[in-house]
Amino acid sequence: MSADLMTSIMFDEIQIGQTAELQRTLTRDDIALFGRISGDLNAIPIDQACALRSGAKGVVGHSLWATGLISNLITQVLPGPGALYQGQDSQFHRQVHLGDTLTARIKVRDKSGENIVRFECMVSNQHGETVMTGVAEVKTPAERIQIKRPDRPNISSQHHDSFGALFEAAESLEPTPTAVVHPCDPISLQGAMDAAAEHLIRPILVGPERKIRAIADAEGIPLAGVEIVNVEHSHAAAERSVRLVREGAADILMKGSLHTDEVLAAVVHKMHGMRTERRISHVFVMDVPTYPKLLLISDAAVNIAPDLEVKRDICQNAIDLAQTLKVESPKVAILSAVETIRPKIQSTLDAAALCKMADRGQITGARLDGPLAMDNAINLEAARIKKIHSDVAGVADILITPDLESGNILAKQLIFLANAEAAGVVLGAKAPIALTSRADSVCARKASAAIAALHADAIRRGIREVTG
After folding, report:
1. How far is the C-alpha of 444 from the C-alpha of 405, rounded, in Å?
2. Where are the alpha helices (DSSP H) in 127-233?
3. Separation of alpha carbons 87 and 139, rounded Å
4. What phi and psi values does residue 87 have, to the nearest 5 degrees?
5. Dist. CA 420–CA 401, nearest whole Å
6. Residue 94 belongs to what domain range?
7. How many other C-beta atoms lie within 10 A of the C-beta of residue 60?
8. In angstroms, how far is the first alpha carbon of the chain from the final one?
9. Residue 13 DSSP label
10. What is the chain's pLDDT, residue by residue, as a tens digit (468 residues)?
11. Which of 140, 77, 136, 79 is nearest to 109 (CA)?
């Protein structure tokens, strides 16, 4: 039978004990569209802050969304097209959180006259915990119906709320002293002062004072009370900013209007830099409207063609950041073009080695799987079709790309084609480095500052180790 067709199962063909099941992950679009269509605009499923105040761990889904999965099974699978609901008895046992993967299952309990079938219904989450139970009473179709399986509509509410928890967590911190390196254009200066206005950082502006003040005057940016360290040019600004970190006067570096290479050259200087035993790497923290949680991508800006040893550090830096962002055991997908090991594709060999390194404790704090192609790393259905059984496949928190080119292309695709917001930070040095681009939105700049502040706080409190 073609997978593109749905065919009803007749009353006489249905057996006592017969089952059907499906699996779905709750996304922000599911929550927003369900609320809009049903008119149920309860703030707990929609607003992060309200959900936390109510005692939830974060944004939760509408309870009836779980019942909708049962309806999906009945009308599309068993009995399928033509089935008519007669009644539904439902009990809800726990909340469904954003990003939860639910398995809905129905089982034929009994049959009675007039083509009536009763189903035991159960929905459970990815932890095996029961979310909903009940009984559905359904009338089977009088004649067999076969129809083309409809395409799932590609509808997005374009919500950007994954950064919300970051901002709330950062608001509880004292403003972090931050060396802003050469903020000598309106965008970088305004970005630093916006972060200061949000009480995320306490900026120390490092650069030519006359030029900084001239830009502030021209753009109407107030600098009252802001410390300025006067140096002649961008190279000197990078070196002095790194020295401020080494001396304990700053806990974050923030890139201004100079090239990234200038900042990083000062950071990795053997004598006067901020080097540790670990290789530095860049992490994009992305809020993608079509993905139910924050997505970390590394490395897309620093290491051009990393070898296995460097990839180990790239993984560990990203894992440490994910844990700072309250992902207790992040799921790390090591990306390649395929999901099987191919000796002629080096990235598949590296992926397999990284997974074994995690097994041996050389990478800690996360679950790794790879090689995984992009589709089965972030889409459960793609992973199911390819028969990949994994805790990571389809639900990754972190994507480790084969090289800088693929990582940069992936991140820019998500930003410009999927309307994602992306914050950037460099890790592996003695302090986090907030990297911003001229094309970054206000939200992305604020998120970069918030993430750097949170990680700096974790380092300061000894939660994140800095070695070397």
Report:
1. 21
2. 164-171, 186-197, 209-219
3. 10
4. 180, 155
5. 18
6. 5-148
7. 22
8. 62
9. G
10. 456 788 999 999 999 999 999 998 887 778 877 776 776 655 444 444 444 455 555 568 888 889 999 999 999 999 999 999 999 999 999 999 888 889 999 999 999 988 999 999 999 999 899 999 999 999 999 899 998 877 766 555 555 567 878 888 888 899 999 999 999 999 899 989 999 998 999 999 999 999 999 999 999 999 999 999 999 999 999 999 999 999 999 999 999 989 889 999 999 998 899 999 999 999 999 999 888 889 999 999 999 999 999 999 999 999 999 999 989 899 999 999 999 999 999 999 999 999 999 999 999 999 999 999 999 999 888 898 899 989 999 999 999 999 999 999 999 999 988 888 899 999 999 999 998 776 777 778 888 999 999 999 999 887 776 655
11. 136
CA distance 87 to 92: 16
Residue matched to tokens 């997505």: 295
Q: Confirm if 410 and 417 have CB atoms less than 8 A apart.
A: no
The token duo for 184 is: 């000598």
> Which residue type occupies 349?
L
Structural domain includes residue 72: yes
| 235 CB-near residues (< 8 Å, 6+ apart) | 262, 266
List helix spans (H) across 78-175. 164-171
- Any idea how long the chain is? 468
* Domain assignment of residue 184, yes or no: no
Residue 181: closest CA among 262, 61, 64, 279 = 262
Residue type for 362, please?
Answer: Q
CA–CA dist 273, 176 (Å, integer)? 20
Q: What is the DSSP string of 200-269?
A: SEEEEEEE-HHHHHHHHHHHT---TT-EEEE-SSHHHHHHHHHHHHHTTS-SEEEE-SS-HHHHHHHHT-
Burial (0-12, 13-18, 19+ Cβ within 10 Å), 261: exposed
Return the SS3 of 17. Answer: coil
> What's the token pair of residue 217?
């005057």
Residue 321 inside a domain? The answer is no
For 214, other C-beta atoms within 10 Å of its C-beta total 12
| CATH code, domain carrying 52 | 3.10.129.10
Distance (Å, whole) CA 203 – CA 308: 37
Alpha-carbon torsion angle 409, 411, 416, 422, nearest 10: -150
Radius of gyration of the chain (CA): 26
**Structural domains counted in the chain:** 1
User: 286: which 2 tokens?
Assistant: 């992305």
Token digits of residue 146:
């076969």
Confirm whether 15 is domain-assigned. yes
For residue 50, the surrounding DSSP H or E stretch is helix 48-53
